[in-house]
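To assess whether the prediction recovers the assembly geometry, we first specified each molecular entity separately, as shown.
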Amino acid sequence: MEKIINWIEYGICILCLALFASAAYGKLADHETFAAGLSRVSFIKGAAVYLAWLVPFAELLVVALLVVPGTQRLGLYCFIALMAVFTGYIVGMMLWAEHLPCHCNLIIEKLSWEGHIWFNLGFIALSIFALWLGRATKNQKTIT
Amino acid sequence: MKNLSLNIKKIALSLLVVGLAVGTQAFKNAEKEGKLVDLYWFDSNPIGDTQTNPNQYLSGDSPISQPCSGASAAYCARGFTLAQTHVVGLYRQPNIAFNSGAPAKKP
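The predicted structure of the complete assembly is given in tokenized form:
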């Protein structure tokens, strides 16, 4: 049973790292478009140049943490934090921005902005579930 | 020892997934920018053939699987096989007129 739980936890990590790896690559490969898109957003205009580098490198850092089994839990915490920031950004954009630029990748590109929020929330829920699974098995180990 | 080998397997699998994700994204980006058009489309005018419609060589109908006609017929006549004509098609100069048909980038 513990083995299955470990693999489920690992599977969720794999999903998260695939998402961030492709997102980071997309942002770095088409960096000019990404930076130009950010500079058009009124509330982050000033920091757009830095954010355009910071975001993909933060994603790559999370990917690295998720790849190494010893740091996967820390990676999941960072993943949740970043996804929460992205979701906040999307909500902010929907509330205040006139234009809604999207530099999303793969399937997300076809989603609406509301769909994008649900997608992010789904991933956050999934990673919280993975952390909970890990903690539950750890607790069970200490009891037995 | 068993744990170490499991960890190595997990790292390898994770890296494989990263590679797949990045590769898919790279392919998608290249497709968006029209860089694959040259790979998909066969040379429409290899040796002065003005009768060929380039649209007949879209990715769905690779010239390798098509009968030896049009532009490929010109190559076939010179002793190339269909597979070789396809390779010749890969090395031709980018055709701006064809690339202009690629989907525009998002702002």
